[in-house]
TrEMBL record:
Enzyme Commission number: 3.1.3.5
Gene: surE
Membrane-crossing residue ranges in chain numbering: none
The name this protein goes by in its record: 5'-nucleotidase SurE
Organism name: Seohaeicola saemankumensis
Cofactor note: Binds 1 divalent metal cation per subunit.
The family this protein is said to belong to: Belongs to the SurE nucleotidase family.
Length: 262
């Protein structure tokens, strides 16, 4: 298996090293793992692409490249330049430092990389590691992802319907490992995306030493559970969440209701 991996935390992020080990396990001794990751952190860029300016790409080692662009840029670079005519069999993005459950998924560069791979008609998964009191200060905060990731990905690859080949907006998976160490993981749950009520992103103003005013983007409380049976809720209950997603943004539930305005 030929696997392309990327992330949004940058080429030197510890979560990317975890993903390299996961990918090597999946690829096997006869497979290949290719890394094309952002040269600098790209958290929060979602599915951004560098459409109006070029990006520099540098080879750092065998099958290892850094690009001055977003995760989606890196996937495009990997598929259409770095890997040549042999497309990857799978694209993995992550392992993100922090969760991409609930509304975080909409901002996530980690998911942006997986989404671009799906648009390129390649199986793709985004992996994120929820952080909390049980694992934040652990020697390996990514232990749950490292231990449980390979087997879960194999199950998803085996279960993904073959009819996806004829689907315009192909599925990609948002996988979030709970904020616990590996032995405390209670299993995996296939659940929809949730929404953290009464908490959201905001801004916090600060003055620089020169008196200029700057705004920092400020995240909301991450340990607020979503509705029962949705992603952040099961994560906080010790389960891995698996959410199948598509890039189709249509509100299908409203199409019939809005027919009256035509």
């Amino acid at each position: 298996m030929r696997i392309l991996i990327t992330n949004d935390d940058g080429i030197n992020a510890p979560g990317l090293a975890v993903l390299e080990r996961i990918a090597a396990d999946l690829a096997g001794p006869d497979g290949e793992v290719w890394v094309v990751a952002p040269a600098f952190e790209q958290s929060g860029v979602a599915h951004c692409i560098s459409y109006t300016h070029p990006m520099m790409i540098a080879k750092l080692g065998e099958r290892r490249f850094a690009a001055e662009g977003s995760p989606a840029d890196c996937v495009l670079a990997g598929i259409h330049d770095v890997m040549g005519d042999a497309r990857p069999d799978l694209v993995l993005s992550g392992v993100n430092r922090g969760n991409n459950s609930a509304e975080n998924a909409l901002y996530s560069g980690t998911l942006g990389g997986a989404m671009e791979a799906a648009l390129q008609r390649i199986p793709a998964m985004a992996l994120s590691q929820y952080l909390g009191p049980s694992n934040f200060a652990a020697p390996d905060p990514f232990e749950a992802a490292a231990v449980h990731g390979p087997a879960l990905i194999r199950k998803l690859l085996a279960a993904t319907p073959r009819i996806e080949d004829d689907t315009d907006y192909r599925v990609f998976y948002n996988i979030n490992f709970p904020p616990v160490l590996a032995e405390a993981v209670r299993g995996a749950r296939v659940v929809p995306q949730g929404f953290r009520r009464n908490t959201r992103f905001s801004v916090e103003p600060h003055l620089s030493p020169s008196g200029r005013r700057f705004l920092w983007i400020k995240g909301g409380e991450q340990h607020v559970p979503t509705l029962p049976g949705t992603d952040a809720a099961v994560n906080l209950d010790g389960y891995i969440s698996v959410t199948p997603m598509r890039a189709d943004l249509t509100a299908h539930d409203l199409l019939d209701q809005l027919k009256g305005i035509e």
